[in-house]
């Protein structure tokens, strides 16, 4: 089995944003900036020089502000992709898991953790709709960049979970089992075989921050 990208492959690095101001909570589309710790986490995550050819970012500032700085420093093109925003958490946005568990929504939250495919957040986005906007976007990025390109996508915990599940062929009702801490990086390699593009997960690299598994933001 090949362990490294081949010349006919395209490489996708996906980087989750660092800690936002306000700490751990369900943010979804809330547009909080990175905290000082979050900036430090992001700089540490990209410290090893990588041969990136293009940066793509969610438009939310906890991703975009760092992506803009990095693109300027590395002199790389930057594309803002609205479809790579986080899952919408509906009535949970802005609330911590502890707050929700102490409310009448506690049962809904535990059901979401158990099977997010069948139990979306109240007034939030379903995983089916989430998948239908994110995966075609990733496929489009792959199709419109040359073989051998190496893309960096700065996005959210939900995006990285979904991309990992896509690469592994994992059912989305198990998505909550993937722990993606702040400033975590994953690398997907897109192999072009017999006219098809087949994703595979090369690695998942967390940072040194203890993981917070209950609250993708």
From TrEMBL:
MF GO annotations: phosphatase activity
Site (Transition state stabilizer): 156
Pfam families attached to this UniProt entry: His_Phos_1
SUPFAM superfamilies linked to this entry: Phosphoglycerate mutase-like
SMART domains in the record: PGAM (SM00855)
InterPro entries for this protein: His_Pase_superF_clade-1 (IPR013078), His_PPase_superfam (IPR029033), PGM_Phosphatase (IPR050275)
Record's protein name: Transcriptional regulator, Fis family
